[in-house]
User: Fold this.
Amino acid sequence: MISPYHGGSRVKIPNCKIENLNILPKIQIDEQTLITLSLLKIGILSPLDSFQGYEEAMEISREGRMENGLVWSMPVLLPVTDEESYTFSEGDETTLHFSDKLVALMKIEEKFSLDMYEYCNRIFGTTSIDHPGVKAILQKGNKFVSGHIKGINNYNTHFSTMQPDPDKLRGLFNKKGFKTVTAFQTRNPPHRGHEFLHKYSLLSTDALFINPVLGPKKSGDFSDQEIFQSYQVYLDKYLPKQRTILLPLIYAMQYAGPREAIMHMIMRKNLGCTHFVIGRDHAGVGSFYGPYAARDYVSTFTDIGIEPVFLKEAYYCKACTEISNDDICPHDDSQKSHFSGTKIRDAFLHKREPYPYEMRGEIYNKIIELRSSKQNTVETLDKLEINLSNPLE
Amino acid sequence: MISPYHGGSRVKIPNCKIENLNILPKIQIDEQTLITLSLLKIGILSPLDSFQGYEEAMEISREGRMENGLVWSMPVLLPVTDEESYTFSEGDETTLHFSDKLVALMKIEEKFSLDMYEYCNRIFGTTSIDHPGVKAILQKGNKFVSGHIKGINNYNTHFSTMQPDPDKLRGLFNKKGFKTVTAFQTRNPPHRGHEFLHKYSLLSTDALFINPVLGPKKSGDFSDQEIFQSYQVYLDKYLPKQRTILLPLIYAMQYAGPREAIMHMIMRKNLGCTHFVIGRDHAGVGSFYGPYAARDYVSTFTDIGIEPVFLKEAYYCKACTEISNDDICPHDDSQKSHFSGTKIRDAFLHKREPYPYEMRGEIYNKIIELRSSKQNTVETLDKLEINLSNPLE
Assistant:
């Protein structure tokens, strides 16, 4: 059976009425918080319907669980500036704004500060500002507010139409008779190592839900267009369409590795999936986490409610003459051609088409085509256009 | 955890003392019964410690279960001739002989006859003597005896040393920390379609137990030497040795398709395995059963105590450029090169080396080498020599 919602039931947050809200104190939010609001609104972060407070954040940092015991590995925080925090008191209503647009109405429950050194150590395992997630959160200061969100307006129409609706997705799974669905998260165009994971998922469960993460990028990342459209080409040519569903998730990566892997699982559990592929160095960045750190951390939890799928890193093995991994290949390293982000990015930089055992030619060609056309020039999310043939409609 | 014995505990049947047994009435047994005795003795047919009687045989024929409800799909019968049956009464002790050797001591419990037309229809789904299993059993008449087996002497030393010892195998699984083991039964040298199943098994469970069935053949079958030695070459070159165990099972196929698939599962459950691969047309012959008949029948039982692994038929797909099956490949039939026993046998007949995507070259070469040497000329089981590097010793 497809997974129940995390914590039991779906959260739905209504729109808020705009009238008479301009007199309330304002909090300016950034793109990451804007995206978090779109996830909260549609229930992908169920059972959460608010930004979390001090005690909850501390418990999560220490235990990877909410105070009620539910698995939850990263606090969902609303940062405020010192100036903002002077304008309201606990119990006040306040409005959240992105740029000049009113996005949400919230009742302040608590103003608090965190020891960000301890926080980063616990959540990211590092305080180095070379870590993009650490750098981003440290720039926001150490002041936060918690509170019940009374309404959210989807400022960005793309956010509202592009986040997958959990109820609709569950309806689709039920209609198709899927009892088990493996979710696959990605931030890259598919190479043959990814395909190996997809095919294992399609052999071992009823369906594959490919859920590329679109949203803010770090330098060197593939664009949302490149990721999503290359997946459309790939799905069209190489995967069984009746059992593969492709939908994006708008989400701001924090690159917290093991801790973030659990959040990725919870979001896909809320989307009805029963299995989730934990990749090599899942949600990691640079060399901050070991290749199997997420696997080890996830394994310490038995009650997430969605099954982690651990597969070792895939590679092409010349002796096997096929894509393989250390679970099935007995050959030594000299036979193995590993997939690497750097190698793939270089292939595009120098327009050297990858070998067929590295990446399907159609995928390479689609990305080259996008790079030589205007379609790939969007830089911010609110200008993103993706030609979605949405299976939920 | 590795599987408990079917019915709860292992049966062990002692040797019987030879003295003073020559005065007892004699039953002449054939090779199939000799093999059954070796399986009974070592506990692979646990909880069975006797040949089954009329009511048990009828219940099994009707329900696929023993009278106590335990899943058991094919009666284990001891056929006797009319002449033999006149020489003893119920309650008598009798000796079982293969050729001129005393093999077992049994106390007769029941003499009975079966409606062989009904029996064949229920067990084989046919009464056609074109079916080798039907033909074999009809040649034995319709008279049987049941009885408690008081002792078995292993006439054929190969039987005693080659049947895998369930306790030793379980000990090996435990020592290696395997919690899940997929058993793979085969009567053929491995082609790439088999390899696809092996690799899926190694990805989805802790270990793979390759358990080729050696024993009586039908015409056109590969010899025991060819099957076993080609697997040794294959294991050495292409599979992870620490997680793959290769041991033969001496067993006389009855080609009963769906019914026999269940017996294959029970034997591997007794050997400690947790999963068992149900192949295409498993244990079938000719076109008596559909390709997925075993799958359908096995699926009607939920309490066998060993998990069936159903994978659709593998093939090489030119568009995927790899081994695939209908669970993962979206292409049309024109792209697919299917594996077939006939094609493989023809390759050897005409000494045309199969394509690398059909069979590994080392396997082809090993069989060609065996066919051009004297090693492959043994025709009966008691002359079979297999160079076993037995992982259980």
Summary: The domain at 26-155 of chain B is CATH 3.10.400.10 (Sulfate adenylyltransferase). Chain B has a mean pLDDT of 91. The longest helix of chain B spans residues 224-238.
